[in-house]
Amino acid sequence: HLTTSLPLPSERDHLRPRIDLIAFMIDIKSRYSLKNVEASLAHVDASFFLGKVCFLVTGVGRVNYCSIEMNAIWKLGKVYCSPVLFCELELEGIRVATAQRLLRMLQICAGHIPGVSALSFSSLMRNSADD
């Protein structure tokens, strides 16, 4: 399910499936994109930041056209203890690899991978990013 911003409309709460992972998309070429994500974060329950949120940054192949400082993106990931993934949607191979990575994260967050919890997975991703 996709939405352009949070909060979600409450009139359909009873029909909404369980939310296992929230992937915030940030277009590196758009300051509005980052501002929208920052505003939406206030509407996310704190428990989701225990491994069920990630930031997907698109447009990274066009660093000459960046409107957002990379430090702002890294800070967002650090403040919310959430992994930051970078992707170039226009390149099929990278797009497919990113989709597979997101699917694997979703499987873990939904509890479909025995022995791995969303919290431990998120911790592993943060540790690997620090290396």
TrEMBL record:
It comes from Balaeniceps rex (Shoebill). The gene is Cenpm. This is Centromere protein M. It is found in: Chromosome, Centromere; Nucleus. Keywords: Centromere, Chromosome, Nucleus. It comes from the Eukaryota. The keyword Protease does not apply. PANTHER family: CENTROMERE PROTEIN M. Its main location: nucleus. The keyword Cytoplasm does not apply. One of its GO terms (cellular component) is nucleus. Gene3D superfamilies: P-loop containing nucleotide triphosphate hydrolases. Pfam families: CENP-M.
